[in-house]
Backbone:
């Protein structure tokens, strides 16, 4: 039977989330990775957990990534290609990984942290590849994808190509490694959930692939058959793998069989390198007119902040300032960045929200013994509560009860209405 797009996506999501949580046999993962072009030097340069044996190529090796470029990886998994790309773009570039699985995103973030890599230079964001990408238009130099497009339903394949065109800068390029069907697949393979999750049943023909790239507007399209043995996925008994991921089914998806394929994968599909370019002048692709962060929402690169942080009124904060003991009893934290210069609560400490999560260890050392830590931004509806939530969450993780986060009600706008002319309460740079 043919399955709906929703069932296919759910089955893939559950299977790959399980892979992220449970990990893989290192020997198996390295066997697959080296078969598809990764060198031992590359694999040894990143955390072992970043390689889950899910690749069908090594797109970074053929992408000619330059320093300062912005790179986007579609379906980033444990982070292998993003981490390799990060070493090439350098501190002035950006490497972003998108994946539908929260478990994969958590794993990739842990792997990046082991490398000392932090947002915005290197970041991983949970996002569905069948929906509009959370990336600024015309901001990306190179888009990578490694054995992922074949896992999208037909409509999703077309949608991701159009989104790739939108987010690329003029002259930008896609470098995909993917599984392509040598001929239309028979129903017994095309409708096999195990083969779908194993990166085979969702493969389309080269002509179909070229068509969706062309319809999205890409030019200079090139396909290169890597001639790699697709049956390498089934070589390890230890891994329990069936194709590039075990066919674990979720509660809402039909159970996929756990047996290995009864057919020779090489007879039906092949691994290809795929190149295409967005029309436009490549000159100046790293020019200064690009955004500082290619993400539409900078906070997507970080874990979701706990909500429900208590508020404190401006009047209560003013009384603390007049009667309290700043430093030990309370501290006021301004998490705005450029808009801080328009005025701020006198004596407040500036810790911009965009870098706050990365600075949490230092922040804890500075304020972890302060009874009340009061956060605010312009209206205290976005950055302030978010940073307060991150702080409170970290306090709970560390088991610290010596401090608590609060949010200034109304933010600086409300504060300014009440105390904007009182120089003992409001200051300007």
Residues:
């Amino acid at each position: 039977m043919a399955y709906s797009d929703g069932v296919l996506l759910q089955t893939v999501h559950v299977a790959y989330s399980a892979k992220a949580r449970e990990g893989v046999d290192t020997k198996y993962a390295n066997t697959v990775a080296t078969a598809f072009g990764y060198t031992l030097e590359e694999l040894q340069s990143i955390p072992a957990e970043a390689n889950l044996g899910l690749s069908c190529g090594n797109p970074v090796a053929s992408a000619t990534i330059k320093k300062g470029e912005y790179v986007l990886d579609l379906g980033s998994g444990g982070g292998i290609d993003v981490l390799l790309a990060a070493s090439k773009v350098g501190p002035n570039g950006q490497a972003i990984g998108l994946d539908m699985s929260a478990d994969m995103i958590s794993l990739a973030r842990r792997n990046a942290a082991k490398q000392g890599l932090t947002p915005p230079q290197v970041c991983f964001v949970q996002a569905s590849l069948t929906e509009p990408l959370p990336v600024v238009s015309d901001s990306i130099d190179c888009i990578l994808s490694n054995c992922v497009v074949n896992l999208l339903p037909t409509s999703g394949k077309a949608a991701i190509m159009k989104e790739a065109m939108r987010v690329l800068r003029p002259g930008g390029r896609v470098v995909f490694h993917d599984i392509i069907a040598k001929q239309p697949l028979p129903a017994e393979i095309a409708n096999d959930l195990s083969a779908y999750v194993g990166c085979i049943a969702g493969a389309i023909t080269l002509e179909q692939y070229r068509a969706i790239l062309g319809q999205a507007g890409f030019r200079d399209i090139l396909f290169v058959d890597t001639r790699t043995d697709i049956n390498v996925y089934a070589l390890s008994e230890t891994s329990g793998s069936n194709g590039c991921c075990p066919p674990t089914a979720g509660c809402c998806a039909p159970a996929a069989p756990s047996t290995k394929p009864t057919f020779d994968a090489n007879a039906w599909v092949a691994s290809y390198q795929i190149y295409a370019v967005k029309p436009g002048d490549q000159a100046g692709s790293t020019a200064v007119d690009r955004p500082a962060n290619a993400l539409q929402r900078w906070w997507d690169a970080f874990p979701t902040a706990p909500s429900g942080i208590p508020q404190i009124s401006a009047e209560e904060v003013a009384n603390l300032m007049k009667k309290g003991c700043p430093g030990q009893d309370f501290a006021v934290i301004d998490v705005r960045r450029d808009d801080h210069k328009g005025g701020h609560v006198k004596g407040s400490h500036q810790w911009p929200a965009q870098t706050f999560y990365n600075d949490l260890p230092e922040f804890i050392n500075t304020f972890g013994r302060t009874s009340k830590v009061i956060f605010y931004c312009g209206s205290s509806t976005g950055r302030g509560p978010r940073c307060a939530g991150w702080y409170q969450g970290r306090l709970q993780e560390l088991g610290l009860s010596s401090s608590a986060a609060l949010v200034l009600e109304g933010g600086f706008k409300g504060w300014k209405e009440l105390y904007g002319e009182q120089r003992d309460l409001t200051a300007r740079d």
Remarks:
- The chain has 15 helices and 14 strands.
